[in-house]
Structures are given as structure tokens and as C-alpha cells.
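Appendix B. Raw example, untouched.
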Amino acid sequence: MAMDQQKGTQQSATAAPSSANGQAGSGMEGNTGEDWDEEKLEKALARLKEMHIQLKNLRTTVPRLLEPLTKKQPSPQVLFSEFSKSTATANEEVQQFQKLMREEETSQVLEQARKSRAERPNDIKPWRARDHPDWLTRDT
């Protein structure tokens, strides 16, 4: 469902001027109902891309978490150590995604997408990952 929201947000941002920022203190505060300029749209798309990448990576969290348990370990201490590391990594990834989703800028992007979709539901083109092969590549 989050993927649908992201797709809808990206599409809505493209269909109607709307956007958000991928960073705190973006200057997006107070943008209620006004059209978003190109810079704000670019920032919104960057945020959606980061959300998409993190969400996609979370799909492999449980298998990576359990990986140390599926391999023969030389000792119980090594097993515990490896499992502890994988648990800490998984916890950090989940917390990063939760933080991103709770940020005000994310709420603004998703809300603008909902508004845009409600105003112009027929102007939204389907988004397909195969049309964007670099979608999972973070911009540096």
C-alpha cells in the first residue's frame, strides 16, 4: 500500500504542481493549496525516491535478520554475536524508515498527492518501474 501511495504521490506531483523536500527545514511550511514550483516538485520526487528505496530494502530485512541462524556457526558465541549484529542492523533500518515517514515534509508530500489526485483523477498516468531502470539508484 505504501508503494501505491508513493506512486500516486509521484504521479500526482507530476500531474499537478506539488512537491516536498527530502530534508528538514525545507521551507515547505505553509504551502497549503498553492501550486508547487519545479524545485519543490524535484524535492518531493527525491523524497519519494528515498522512501521507495528504503521500503524496497525493508522487504529483505527479515531474511537478512535470520541469515546468521541458517548458517553453521563455529560456536554459540559467534552465533550470538552475528545474530546481535543483524538484529541491530535491522532495527536501525526500520527506525530510519519510520523517521522518514513521520517527518512533516513526507506528510505534506502525501497530502498534496491526495489533493491532486482528488482534483484530477483522470490525469494520472500509471508509473512502471520498468520504464525507470535507475529508480533504485540514489542520487549522489
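End of appendix B.
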